[in-house]
Design goal:
The protein has 117 residues and is an alpha/beta fold. The chain has 5 helices and 5 strands; from the N terminus they run E-H-E-H-E-H-E-H-E-H. The longest helix is centred in the first third of the chain and has 13 residues.
């Protein structure tokens, strides 16, 4: 699977990217939500993992823009954050999964496996 990961923390991007590669996936990382929105195309990405707290633009705003775009609206979306209302935000934006920070890679893998075809 080609998996886009959007998070402003470079250490998290690196660790998730390495994990995804080890699991046989192709990670596409973005430290800028604005760049992610410009680059992600529905044909190029199978799953999006999106942080909720970023300085440039909130994850909720990014999720809403992804779901409003016909090219990206059907890409499964996993939200991750330490935000206490993560479930509520996921419901509002139509996300297919959540991952609470700090997270375990086993839990991330379980979530990803829900979308492997």
């Amino acid at each position: 699977m080609r998996i886009a990961v959007i998070d402003d923390e470079k250490g998290i991007l690196l660790s998730i990217s390495l994990f995804l590669e080890l699991e046989g996936h192709i990670p596409i990382t973005f430290s800028s939500p604005v760049e992610a929105l410009k680059s992600i195309n529905g044909k190029d990405v199978d799953l999006i993992i999106l942080d909720m707290r970023m300085p440039e633009m909130s994850g909720e705003r990014v999720a809403n823009l992804l779901k409003a775009n016909p090219a990206t609206r059907n890409i499964p979306l996993i939200l991750f954050s330490a935000h206490e209302s993560l479930n509520e935000v996921a419901e509002r934006v139509g996300a297919q999964g959540i991952l609470e920070k700090p997270f375990q890679f086993e839990k991330l893998n379980d979530l990803i496996n829900n979308f492997v075809q």
